Amino acid sequence: MAKSSFEYVKSYELDDTLLPNTWIVVRIDGKCFHKFAEHHNFTKPNDLRALNLMNYAAYQVMKDTHDICVAFGQSDEYSFIFNKNTAFYKRRGAKLLTTINSKFSSSYVFYWRKFFGDEILQYPPCFDGRIVLYPSAENVIDYLKWRQADVHINNLYNTAFWALVLQGNLSPGQAEKRLCGTVSADKNELLFKEFNINYNKEKEIFKRGTILLKLHVQLDVKKKTVASIIDIHEDMLKEKFWLKYENLLEPTSKKVVHYNGPITDILNDQILNREKTKCSPINIS
Q1: If phi over 0 gives left and psi between -120 and 50 gives alpha, with beta otherwise, what is residue 121?
Q2: Would you list which residues are annotated within the binding site for Mg(2+)?
Q3: Contact yes or no for 41/48 (Cβ under 8 A)
């Protein structure tokens, strides 16, 4: 392309190349999602449709971005961990953040009806985003543990809060005052004694959030291995998780994991795509 006299304006662009040899975490978060949830009749304290939609949108991001090795989501936020040697968009921060955010946001809208059916999308959702760099695998693991610990703290509070409002007939202000100064044990006792709710039996997706992993997985009795993205809800705060997935942050890991969980929307999508491309059929045991 021929140069013009106006090309000097390119010199005003700032270099936003991210520090090399570090793990890049892109975290997106819903903006004003409390109002969005109210306007779209989300079930309280947790709406499984909304969580599954978040997970499916994150799966679309992860499927198209090979350098993401793990993602973690809860409520209205999702974190995407890039491997430390990624050269995706030459590690340009603005490119990374806007690409991930726009892909996630558009997928959330595009797949809305898949999970919400006849519930009409009243207006487009909005997500903000940030990038954080971590120098060591230990930092990344602690980051993931932090976000999962946040799930438990918030969900236990919300479960108790909405039990008081929806079943205990308290106003939001009264429920908030009732829970002020309580610790986890107090909330567990309140739920069990007053509402016969055993918090330990709540769905794991509510208590743990969702982890998206890229793994070589055994899906059938014939022990064939298939590279897949799987969504799980395991406890990352326990050491056995990191022993089971010891190469989680290694993009070239070929470790095989036997998967005997449910066939989720995310896994089913991959199975159907393989069948469409005339790959060998997968027999699910």
Answers
A1: beta
A2: 29-30, 76
A3: no
Helices (H), the chain: 33-39, 48-64, 93-110, 112-116, 137-166, 172-179, 184-195, 204-208, 239-244, 265-276
pLDDT tens per residue, range 64-115: 999 999 999 999 999 999 999 999 999 999 999 999 999 999 999 999 999 9
Tokens 């055994």 -> residue: 218
- Alpha carbon distance 226, 258 (integer Å): 10
Give the pTM: 0.92
**CB of 248 closer than 8 Å to CB of 93:** no
Question: What is the Cα 235 distance to its own chain's centre?
Answer: 14
Q: Cα 162 to the chain's mean position, in Å? A: 23
3-state secondary structure (DSSP) of residue 78: strand
Binding-site residue set for GTP: 29-34, 75-76
- CA dist 273 to 95, 99, 278, 281, Å? 29, 24, 9, 11
Contact yes or no for 81/88 (Cβ under 8 A): no
Give phi and psi for 182, each to the nearest 5: -80, 155
Which residues are annotated binding-site positions? 29-34, 75-76
Q: Which residue has the tokens 């602690």?
A: 142
As a whole number, the mean pLDDT across the chain is: 92
CA pair distance 53, 35, nearest whole angstrom: 17
Q: Phi first, then psi: give them for residue 143, nearest 5 degrees.
A: -60, -45
Q: One-letter amino acid identity for 234?
A: E
